[in-house]
C-alpha cells in the first residue's frame, strides 16, 4: 500500500473516532449510596459530626447510611481566595474525619479560577471536582458542565441539603443555583458579598447640626437617602475639608472606579436605582438567559445615570479612578473618606485595629435611592460539581457540598478568624448571638465583625433592594465594555452620550442583536 | 569648550542618565525590601520612613506552619531545578548534534525548534492541558516539570547549538586523533570552552521556571503550588496582605539575584560568545 493511502486511511479513522466520541451520549449518573440495600430512607439520623450548634438544622442522612463509604476518594475543590474557602480549608479535618474523603482546597484569584475551570471543562477533564461557580464568569458560560444537584438531593439513599433549599435566601438561590431555567439545580449558595454604604459615624454625628443648619435636612445615611443628597453631602464635606472645618477625613466620598469590574459594580448601583439596566428582560439577573435581547442602555434612565456618575466622580477622592474594592477599602480604613459604597464583608477589615484607623467608627446603610429605588449589587457565588468526575467522586463531592453549605458549617465560617464570611443560610441569622453581633459594641460584634454590616445587608437582600447584574454567557465581555467606556468618560475622553452609545453598540454586537 | 571640559560634561551627562536608569530600576525593589521589614501602618505612612526598626514578623509568619511558605519554596526549587537540569542535559546533547552534524534540512529543523518558543504561552495552554489531562499529569509536579521543559528545551537547544558552533571543530578532531572517543572529545574538549554558554543558558532557563506564574497556576495542584502562585493567595476578597506580599516578593527575587551575581562573569561571557569574530 502506498504511503499516501496509508496516511489517508489513518486520517479517516481518526476523524471517525473523534466524531463518534463527540456524539456519544452521556451515561446517567449513579446517585445511589453504595450500601443502598441496607438503608431505611424513611428515617433520618444525625450525621456523626461533632459540635452541633443548637437552633440550626443538623446534617442528616437516611438510617443505615455509611458516612465512610467513600473513604480514600480524593476530591479537589477550586475556589477564589475567599473567606469561606479559607475557613473550610482550616477546618477540613472535621469533614475528612467523618467521611474519610481527602479534600484539597485550591484557592486563587478569580481570573485564575475562571481560566482553570474553563480549561478543565473544555478538556472534559475532572482535575477539579467541586467548582466555585461564579454565576457570571463560570455558571452562565459553562452550565452544561455541571451536575444537576437535584439528582442527589432527591435520591432517597443519600443525605439531603440540611434545612432544605428554602433556608437559602430565595433570590440568592436563583442567581447562584440555576441557569436559564429551574429544571436543574447547578450550584448551592456559598458566599454572598453585597454592596452597601459604609460611612464614618463619628463624622456624621459631629457635624450633624452644622449640616442641618446650612442645608436644612438630617444628613445621617439611612434607607431613603437619595443619590442626589449623597452627592450634595459629599460636596459639602469636601468644601468643609478645604475650609479646615472637617479634619477627620479628606474627602466626602470615594469610589472603586478603576478601569476594572469594580467600576461596573459601582456604576450599576446607580443605574439600577434609577430604574435602568443593561437589558430589558426582568429575570435576566436571577435565572439568567442565553438570549438577553437588545441592550437597554439607550434608555433615558441609563443616560441620566451615566451623567450622574460622571458628575459624582468629580467630587470623589482623586484616587477613586485607580481603586478597585481593595483600594477603596484601604483608603476608607486609612480614614481618608467619609462615605463609600463597598462590599459588606470589608467590615471585618474596618474593625481590625491593626489594619484600620476607623475601627469602631463605621456605620452601614442601604445604598442611596435613585429615581426608583435603592439598588445594592449582589456578588455572591455558589459551588457545584464537575460532571466529568467519576460517580464516586461526584458522590463524595455531594457530601462535601452538603457539609460546606450547611447552616452548621456556615456558622463555623462566620466565627472563624480565617473566614469571617457571612452565612448564606437564613437560619443562622435567627441565632441569638448572631443577632447580638449585629449591634455595635457587643462582645459578639467583636468576635464576628462582619455582622456589623448585616442589618443593612439583610435589607439589601430584599428583592426590591437587591440588584443582580445580567447572568448571560457574554457578560464577562460586556462587563469589559461597560467599565472601559465608563473609564474613558471619567477620564474626560468622551461624553456621557457617547458612552451609552458605545456601550449599546458593543453590547448588541456581543449578543448578536 | 575645551576638550577636557567637554569630556567631563559628557561623563556627567552619561553618569546622570545611568544614575536615573538605576534609580528607576532599583527603587521599586528597594521599596519592596524596606516595606517587607515594616509594619502595615509603617508601610503606608507618609512621608515614608527610610530609617526604622526592622520588623521580621511577616517573614516569621511566612515560614511558620500556618504560612506554609517552606512548602511553596520547596516546590519552586524542585520544579525550576529539575526542569532546568533536564533542559540543559538534553539541550546540550541536541545542540551539539545540531552544531556538528550535517544533514538534510538542518537549518529548517533548527528554526522549527526555536519557533516553538515564538507562540505566546496562552496559545499552547489548551493543547498542553488536553495532553496532560489524558496523561494524568494535571496537578502533579511531573506535569509542571514537563511544562517548563517544553518551553525551556527549545531555548536551551538553540542556545547551546550557537555556543557549540563557536568551539572550533579542530579541537575535537585533535582530541580524537590523540585517542579520545567521540563522547570523551565532547566532554573533555568541547564542554569546557562552552561552559559560560552552558551557565548562561541554565540561568535563563532557571529564571523562566522560577518566575513563571501562568504554567504554574494552570498545571500545578493544591500540593505543588509554587511561590508566584502562592503570592496570589495574598490578594483576598477582604484586602491585600501587603506585608506578606512584599516579603514574598523579596523571597522570590533574592535567589535569582544571588545566582545572577555569582555567575555574572559567565553570563556576560556566555551571552557575548561569538559577538566579536
TrEMBL record, chain A:
Transmembrane segments: none
Pfam families the UniProt entry points to: SBP_bac_8 (PF13416)
SUPFAM superfamilies: Periplasmic binding protein-like II
Record's keyword terms, sorted: Signal, Transport
Organism superkingdom: Bacteria
Residues in the signal sequence: 1-24
Family: Belongs to the bacterial solute-binding protein 1 family.
Protein name, UniProt field: Extracellular solute-binding protein
Annotated organism of origin: Polycladomyces zharkentensis
Automatic annotation (TrEMBL), chain B:
Keywords assigned by UniProt, alphabetized: Cell membrane, Membrane, Transmembrane, Transmembrane helix, Transport
Domain of life: Bacteria
Record membrane topology: Multi-pass membrane protein
Membrane spanning stretches: 12-34, 77-99, 111-132, 144-164, 185-210, 241-263
Region forming the signal peptide: none
InterPro entries per the UniProt record, alphabetical: BP-dep_ABC_trans_perm, MetI-like, MetI-like_sf
Zinc-finger among keywords: no
Pfam families: BPD_transp_1 (PF00528)
Localization annotation: Cell membrane
Domain (ABC transmembrane type-1): residue spans on this chain: 73-263
Keyword Transmembrane: yes
CDD domains noted in UniProt: TM_PBP2
PROSITE patterns in alphabetical order: ABC_TM1 (PS50928)
Record family assignment: Belongs to the binding-protein-dependent transport system permease family.
Name of the protein in question: Carbohydrate ABC transporter permease
